[in-house]
Amino acid sequence: MATFRLFARFTSGSLRLITSGNRTYWIWIAVLSVLSLAGLWEYFVQLRDGLITTSLRDQAAWGFYIGNFTFLVGIAAAAVMLVVPAYLYNWRPIKEIVVYGQLLAISAAICCILFVLVDIGRPERLWHLLPSLGHLNIPTSLLGWDVIFLNSYLLLNFGIVTYLLFNMFRRREPNQRLFMTMVWFSIPAALAIRTITAFLYLGLVSRPFWNSAILAPRCIAAAFCSGPAVMLVVMQVLQKYSSFHISREAIWKIAELMAYFIGVNLFLFGAEVFKEYYSATEHLIYMEYMFTGVDGHNAIVPWMWTSVISSVLAFVILLRRKFRENPITLNLGCALIFLGVYLEKSMGTVVPGMTPDVLGEIYEYVPSRSEIVITVGILAMGAMIFTLMVKIANPILHGEFHVNLRPGGTATPKSKDGTSATSGGCYAQGGSAEQLENPALSHFQTLP
Amino acid sequence: MKSATPNRREFLCVVAGCAAAASSGSCGDLTHSGFFQDRFRELSRAEIDQVLIRLEREHSERFGKECTVTATEPREDVEFGYALDISRCIGCRRCVQACVEENNQSRSPELQWIRVLEMDERHGIDFHYAEPYYDPEQVPQDGYFYLPVACQHCKNPPCVKSCPVGATWQEDDGIVVVDYDWCIGCRCCMAACPYGARHFNWKTPGISAEEVNPDMHYLGNRPRPVGVVEKCTFCIQRTREGRYPACVEICPVGARKFGNLLDPDSELRYVLEQKRVFVLKAELNTQPRFYYFMG
What we know:
The complex is a heterodimer of chains A (448) and B (295). Chain A is mostly helical. Chain A starts with a helix and ends with a helix. Chain A has a single domain (20-446), classed as Formate dehydrogenase/DMSO reductase fold (Up-down Bundle), CATH 1.20.1630. Chain A has 19 helices and no strands. Chain B has two domains: 2-70, no CATH class; 72-295, Alpha-Beta Plaits (2-Layer Sandwich), CATH 3.30.70. The termini of chain B are far apart. Chains A and B meet through helix 7 of A and helix 1, helix 5, helix 6 and strand 7 of B.
């Protein structure tokens, strides 16, 4: 009962936190709300008129929605790159930021589920997927597995973060066993969502472009370079606009890991390109559609070259320590690898896989206005969810919002002013006197 | 799965807010009003009959004429197969038209289960050179042959494997069917099909009362809703009653053969045993029941 009452206070305090903020915060929320509402409106039109509002047709049955879903599964899975060093190796610099990585994973996983939802022709029948109530066709259906694992991954991460934050709020030690069990499950779950999503494509014998055994390793490598790129940029933005702090060691370590994975990703991609061009079977046509166009159909060609060039440039930049440690070149590298992987893993995966179609017809798929508005709407919702969660997590992690403190003036994260910068800095270096007194915080630093 | 059905039914009844009806073991019209209807494969014969009555009523009202909806089951010792003589086919596409009329495909937007490809003789069966939108003054054109493609009713169907809700399956007589009231419209099956045989209702299918064929089968030609997948059913409403599919009947050159693969005296078996037969994309091991041959 006491826990319940505390949780109610935790919830109401959280609500107060997300409804108070400075001008920048409210402008940001307003922009995201407008974009989300625009997406929602377009979705209602799509529900009313059918998926005819998209550019999808029988020849290209999947497109922008499923492409974005595929890419974001990678972003969701990439949190594991922080979870492992933080909770398993107990590496301090990463441990300070791991929660933010998990919040990003939660937001990305929600976006993934929304992308599948808007792609479905009869969303009101989604209950057909529920085991026992409906009929979940596993083991053979990979979308079935994806539904299970994506939802489990989302719940696990949500559970881990909420449990941790709530315990820090009430200044109690989390139950080690429970906490670490959730962490241990979340690690294979991260790899599973990425692998299963790759298998969803790979398992289709009808589409030679996807039916390649290295598709799953490729997807994981790509996830581990695009995910950290997003995290690094988001965390620098957070550092600028809130009391969040990330140490340079953490940034450099993440950037270093990212550089290696870009290399692996390029190598695997190169292996695939070599195989197709050297053997030059009839399956080469999909690669050709991607890189040179087929019979004058080349809508995707500039995008694919942009992707390859961006990835190579990012690799060249981030491989050098000097450039990784310079904030300008680091962010340039992040932007380039994000662009490279986004183009490759969203449209660059879905479209060439379906063009030409199984009977050789070339239907050039380009997303419709409605698809773009809905996609932007979903991404805005994801960003909104992330913002709100950070707004709650930030003061808790900094000991500014806990059971003995009402989240008032001090609890509200402000734009980086003197106090928050100092407290953040101290935290990174070992905690100020106040933070050392906070048992939850000191505990958090020694977890597990 | 059967045993789970009563619980599920009760649960759905409760969800639907008719707990009282649930306790009496039935919740009347509500579970059969479409939304709460179970997967066709799990319905008992009595439940199927109720569903059919509802559908007949709905379609008759909608089109203003008497419509019958059956759910005739597969016959014992029947496995349907199809053979098409590509040396005879002239590419007239009468089969496409007959199929649309028989199976109540959408006229607006147009949706067709059969796709006839104009193939370049110099390249043989190479889909890179296939032209589905050929439109000459006259067919056949010199230098081309014609390859009609529809559902191949595979023995190892990739579409069935991929469906996340089990809305598509293979019947005992080999026909691969879709439950239009269970399909969620995710289009995994369309991505999985190597023959482009599956079609999605991107918009509410448009079909007028004059055009509608009132003799319907639940798993076949009954009108489809928006947002679900459909495909060739070997004219299930005809063939399970012992008739030929519409495409076979209409073909002016007799290129299309249909019959029971298990009957050694059938015309189909004669073709398979006497002619040079091939299947499309044999390397994928989908094992089509749709054979092509050169007479």
